[in-house]
Structures are given as structure tokens and as C-alpha cells.
From TrEMBL:
<dbReference type="InterPro" id="IPR027267">
    <property type="entry name" value="AH/BAR_dom_sf"/>
</dbReference>
<dbReference type="GO" id="GO:0055037">
    <property type="term" value="C:recycling endosome"/>
</dbReference>
<dbReference type="Pfam" id="PF00018">
    <property type="entry name" value="SH3_1"/>
</dbReference>
<dbReference type="GO" id="GO:0031594">
    <property type="term" value="C:neuromuscular junction"/>
</dbReference>
<feature type="domain" description="SH3">
    <location>
        <begin position="368"/>
        <end position="429"/>
    </location>
</feature>
<keyword id="KW-0446">Lipid-binding</keyword>
<feature type="region of interest" description="Disordered">
    <location>
        <begin position="556"/>
        <end position="629"/>
    </location>
</feature>
<protein>
    <submittedName>
        <fullName>FCSD1 protein</fullName>
    </submittedName>
</protein>
<feature type="coiled-coil region">
    <location>
        <begin position="285"/>
        <end position="319"/>
    </location>
</feature>
<dbReference type="GO" id="GO:0051495">
    <property type="term" value="P:positive regulation of cytoskeleton organization"/>
</dbReference>
<feature type="domain" description="SH3">
    <location>
        <begin position="459"/>
        <end position="522"/>
    </location>
</feature>
<dbReference type="GO" id="GO:0042995">
    <property type="term" value="C:cell projection"/>
</dbReference>
<dbReference type="GO" id="GO:0008289">
    <property type="term" value="F:lipid binding"/>
</dbReference>
<dbReference type="InterPro" id="IPR036028">
    <property type="entry name" value="SH3-like_dom_sf"/>
</dbReference>
<feature type="region of interest" description="Disordered">
    <location>
        <begin position="334"/>
        <end position="365"/>
    </location>
</feature>
<dbReference type="InterPro" id="IPR031160">
    <property type="entry name" value="F_BAR_dom"/>
</dbReference>
<dbReference type="InterPro" id="IPR035460">
    <property type="entry name" value="FCHSD_SH3_1"/>
</dbReference>
Amino acid sequence: RTMAAVWKGVIEGTAHAGQVRVTASESYRALATEAARTARLSKERMLKKGMERLQKAQAELLESVKELDKAKKQFTHLQRSSEVAKDKAADVEARLRKSDRRIFHTKASLQKLSAKFSARLAEHSRQLAGVQNEYSFALVSATAHLEHYQRVELPAAMQALDGDLYERLREHLSATSRTEVETCRATWDWFQGVAEASTRVCQEQDLLLFLQDHPAFSLAPEQRFQLTGVEEVRLLPPGDDGASLEKEARRWATRVARDQKNKAHSEEVLQLLEARRQQLPEGEAATVERQMEEAREIIRKAEVSRVKAEARLALLRAAGLDVDAWLAGAMVGTGEETPTGLDPAEFDDYEDSDEPDGDDEPGPAARTYPYTCRVIFGYQGCQADELSITQGEELEVIEDGDAEEWVKARNKAGRVGYVPEKYLLSLGCDSGAGLGPLGPSALHRQLSSIMAAELVLEPGAWLVRALYDYEGQSPEELSFPEGAIIRVLPRAAGEVDDGFWTGDFDGRVGVFPSLVVEELTGAREAAGQVSGGRVVVWEKTPFPLFPSLLVVSSQELPSPSPPPFSPPGLATGALLTPSPAPETLLGGCRQDGTGSGQSSPDLTATRLRPLRAPPPPPSRVPESDPERH
């Protein structure tokens, strides 16, 4: 029975008692007024909250549909252009065969036109394959998003609109029925039925009856986008300039792993905040409630993003790609990383972009040990299990460390201990084997490695990084892959910047367009250059070893993860210089209770993983010439 039917039984029972129950009727009227007021206030609050959530979900669905429409228009336009070029090429070929030169054309001009239209047709055919794949991706992504909206977000929004209304009404109705039974045995039989009916009032039953009376609110039949006029996704030919499907598989496997990690981390944070909220007084719980709502929003957005990425991976798997290999590599990398801290910055807006970070791309294979490396910066161990190292010393890295940014290494004397990973430069091995997948600070680490390898830039030169793969169109142009580091050579005095720069990549000198690269941080500052009206500065702002925590105490929350850090680039000839005193490098590492204000972390507390933060960067670079080994 619905809530209205139960309430009707209460009213009829009250009327049956008559004037004898006037006092009881006044009590029921007061109780009904309180219930209505409470229900109205709760309904208004939940309506405002639920509508905001529903509008966000609908706005995200609208963005997916806009992306689909954009991809469709691009595909249609390119397909039409290809057909026009095909018709023109066929017309010129027919005129050549018939020797129909007319008055304004010669045989040579017709042959040139034929070659021109044939080249244009080939170019359109090549581009059409890539645009077709993008259209297919947009189709499956929008289909998955719509299905998720209908199955998950819309029912959740309807449930959120009711909130705890039915629980409150159930309590009021039960209290009314119990009072009537205790007050007057004469009407016991009547109100006993009302009491039993009131205990069965629930949101599910009321919603079912409401949907039966109002079919407009029923769930719509399942809608699926169809690939009308488009073939299934297919592999691009070798040497094509479009995006390769293997790269797409790697990107979306990374997105699935990242969303799973974000969801798991946010769920853990939500549980910890829930436990903390129960212990706080009412006045201090508002901040925790806000953080819990932000964590739930992150979880919801991660689910939507993962559903869309898995749909793309399913399409790539159907095309014959080994998606599971990339997905397994990404999941292994995610499983090894355990959330180690709670930072308020983690509750910033979750960017639901379909373009995952390039530095987060996983590899199908894990790290391989051991490998040889050279010490870029000296370090004095602060704990018994840490290894003291000197600049220029060669080490053998044997395994991962017990915390992020640390590895276990062995020196030539046979001593084994933990050392900061970013203080080392890998020698004679593939960076993917020695250092694993690139992290968020991969660009800074790569630049530091180049400078540590004593790459001397002449005055006026600087370094840039390729944003895209580029294939030279002539022998004078450079060809390079995405992420390549290129040394830009200085221009002659008075030379005008025509959009093409001269650079050196992998020992080859040539020109390339400046639009496909980005300047590395601090590179042009070292050369005394100013680009685009701004001076690029290598920031050396020190990072705190311990990011600020939430109101939850350290015994109840996991330890914070080490902050991102990249050692500054070395000056020319400073690679093998003996390191400065440990007090200079570490800023006074606390071993006897003195020195800097940053004390050693407490490893005895209950944590998910050991807390071992990297030491701060060296305060200066040695000035003496190195002694070559």
C-alpha cells in the first residue's frame, strides 16, 4: 500500500472514534502537521541536490553527442570531397582515352590534371581511414555513455529525490498507530490494520505504484547508435600519418586503469571520512560532508569515463588488436601503486577528458633488473637501510624500493641499500627497461638526463620536445617521433622567423615546423632567449616533504605519497664532480634531533606502505671540473 492509503486509514479510524476521541484527534493533527513540514523541507532540499546531479549527467551526455555529431560531419565532408575528386579524375581519364582535348587543353595539361586528381584522391582515401575510425570511436563511446545514463545515473537521481522521506513518514505513521492502540482498546482492531500497513510503507513499492500510474516516468527502451554507412574499424596501412590503432589501444587501456585507480582511491577515502564523521561533533561535520560529496562525484565520473573507454577497447578488440596485453600491463601498474595519502587537492575537479595523459601510457612489460646507472647527485643515508652515494659513482639497481621514488641498489663494494631513483642516470639500457613507464615528471627527468649527459648548448640554442610524430616532406626536413628532444640551432642575425626552425635530432640537422613542438621548461632561459613575449624560467621552488592532510589523523589515514621531484640540470662538466657535504645536499638531515625542521617519519604507525620521502634537491651544483673515470 502507498503512503497515501495508509494515511487514509488513519483518518478513517480517527473519524470512527467520534467526538470521544477529540483530544486524540488534535494530537494526530499536530503530528500530521509536523510530518508534512518535515517532508516538504526534506523534499525541497533533496530536489535541489538531485536536480544539480541530474543536470551534470545530462550535460556530460550532451557533450558526448556533440562529439559524435562533430565526428560525423567531418567524416561526411571528407567522404564527399573524396567522391568529387574521384569523379573529376575519372572524367580526365576518359578525355585522355578519347583524345578529347577541346580548345583550352593539350595532352600534357590533361595528363597533369589526371596526376593532380589522382594524388588528391589518394590523399583523401588515406585521410578517410583515420576519420572513419574516429567516427566509429565516437559512436561506440556515445552508445556506452547513453546506456550508462539510463541504467545507473537516472535511477540514482530518482532515488536521491526521495532521500529519507519514506523513513520519516514511516516513523510518524507508526507512532500514530501505536498511540491510538494504547489509548483506546475499542478501536484496537481498526488501527491494528493501519499499523501493519504503515510498517510496509517503502520507497520501492511507492515508486512502483507511481510508475504504474504515470507511464511517462518509466525507463525508455534501450537506445543504441548504429554504424550507418560506416564500415567496422580497420587497421591503417603501414606508413600512414593517422593515429595507429595500437596507440589507441594503449591510450584507452591507460584510461581504464587510471579510472579504476581513482575509483578505488576515492572509495577508500570515502570510508575513512565516513568513520571520521561519526566521531566529530555536529558543528565540525560540515567540512567532512563536503569532502565526502566530492569523493562521490569523483567515483561517479570515473565510472562514466571507464564505461566509455571500455567500449572503445571492445571495438578495438573486435578489430583484431591484442587489447588484453595493454590492459594487463596497465592494470599491473595500477595494482602496484597504493594510495599513500590524502591531500585536499585530490578533490579538485575530475577532468573527464577523452585524451589521457601521454606520460601515463603503460607498457606491456614490467621493469627488468638489474641495470647499471650513474649517480648524478650525492646522497647521505638518513636511515640504517639507506645507501650513501657520491656523485659519479656507478651502481647496480637490483629491484624496486619499499616506497615510490626509491630503488634498491648495490655499489662496487657490495653494499646494498635504498637510494633516490631520481638521483640516478641509467647507462647503456633502454629507459623503458630500467625506469619503467614514464610518470608525471617524465619530461623533467628526461631533460635532467640530457643535461647530466653533458649536452652543451651553444649561445642562442635551446631544446624543444615533439608534440606529434612528424615525417619530413623533403630531404631538408627532419623526421622525428612524438616526445623526441630536439636541439634548435641559433638563427643568423637579422633572420626572420618563417615558422620553420633548424634543429639537430639524433645527429641529423634539418628544418621542421615550429607548430609541432613545445619548448622545454628552462631551456631558452639558459640560452638567454625570450619566446612569444614570455621568459621561460626553471623554477626551483622546493616541494614540501609532507603534503597537508585532511582533518583525519595520521593514525587513521594512509601516509602521504612522496611529492613529484626532478633534480635540476647539471652545469657543463659537473657530472662526476665529488658531491658536497651531506649537510649541504640534505639541508641538515636530522639524525640527532637537530638540523632542519623536517623530522624522520614514524614508520611504526599503521600504514598501507612505508613512508620514505625523497630528500630535497641539492642546494647548489659543484663548480669544480669533474675527474673522468
